[in-house]
Amino acid sequence: MKTTLDELQAFIAVVDTGSISAAAEQLGQTVSGVSRALGRLERKLATTLLRRTTRRIALTEEGQAFLARARAILLSVDEAEELMAARRQQPAGRLRVNAATPFMLHAIAPLAADFRAAYPQIALELDTDEMNIDLLARRTDIAIRIGALRDSTLHARPLASSRIRVLASPAYLAAAGRPTTVAALARHTLLGFTQPESLNRWPLRGVHGDEWAATPAITASSGETLRRLALAGAGIACLSDFMTAADRQAGDLVQVLARDTVDVRQPVHAVYYRNTALAARIECFLAFVEGRLRTMSWNAR
Fold first, then answer.
1. Pairwise CA distance, residues 51 & 107, whole Å
2. What's the domain count of the chain?
3. Pairing mode, if any, of strands 155-168 and 254-255?
């Protein structure tokens, strides 16, 4: 059995106060409780630390040697607790955040400078990946995920939601014509995702229901690539507001088939492992990002 901190505290208190009864009073414990802790400690160490008489308690040679180490251990614990308390007051350390490229570029990266100004002792490490990742394998503190969540082992915090629309550039529509029905999309160049296939089911109502299965002529793994293709006039895409709101406001992309579009909003979550209290650096990042995203025009929460 391993020595416990309670046993070390009892031993040091007896040495410092000179008696078991005084140590019990100092620690707020019973005399018998302190005595039992000392007995357990000596049995675990297989040595006598204190010589007890009716008048006094004295350290043995082994006890004298052990005392210095015991004090060092408790001092290290105190320093570690003080460090954690300080980090709660002024969060510090490395924070690893993962998100799909479009969300990182359009939602997280623009907030990085202000976050660092507010929390200068946190070192941000921003990583992009188009697929869901294993947080432990990639040593990631927080992953931003868009859409329905599947991994029940993770804790999720909702951050925002973003509507999806069918869009094209004015140049493409001028050249290819504007589709006036969902069926007319079959005659156009469609831009879609390599995977998952669910992202190629567009929120368009008709005889097929409230989803229309697009057959893309050009596919890409990243929504940002599809956005760039749409801006370049390569075809029609179905993309989320968080990456296209500015483009629509500037007139670089326009919505098509608005009357046939179902109001579908993609949830945005921060996911992370939470076995104990959430680290201060993670908590402050989540609160900061959630507060900023709440003010975004595309956030349809």
1. 67
2. 3
3. antiparallel
Report, as an integer, the average pLDDT of 257-271: 94
Q: Are 71 and 199 in the same domain?
A: no
Report how far residue 144's alpha carbon sits from residue 104's, in angstroms, rounded to the nearest whole number. 9
- Parent domain of 183: 162-265
Report DSSP state, residue 194: S
**CATH number of the domain residue 221 falls in:** 3.40.190.10
* pTM of structure: 0.69
Using CB atoms within 10 Å of the CB of residue 80, give its burial: 0 to 12 exposed, 13 to 18 middle, 19+ buried: exposed
Pairing mode, strands 50-52 and 57-59: antiparallel
H-run or E-run covering 24 = helix 20-27
Three-class DSSP category at 51: strand
Residues 162 and 301 sit within 8 Å (Cβ to Cβ): no
Strand partners, 57: 52
In this structure, the dihedral spanned by the alpha carbons of residues 256, 261, 264 and 266, taken in order and rounded to 10 degrees, is: -20
| pLDDT tens-place string over residues 169-208 | 999 999 999 999 999 999 999 999 998 888 999 999 987 7
287 near 111, Cβ under 8 Å? no
Which CA distances in Å does 159 have to 48, 99, 133, 144, 285? 59, 13, 19, 9, 11
β-pairing, 122-128 with 93-99?
parallel
140 and 233 housed in the same domain? no
Q: CB of 203 within 8 A of CB of 264? A: yes
The single residue listed with the structure tokens 């969060």 is 91
Cα–Cα distance between 52 and 130 in angstroms, integer? 68
Question: Which sign, positive or negative, has the C-alpha torsion 131, 134, 139, 144?
Answer: positive
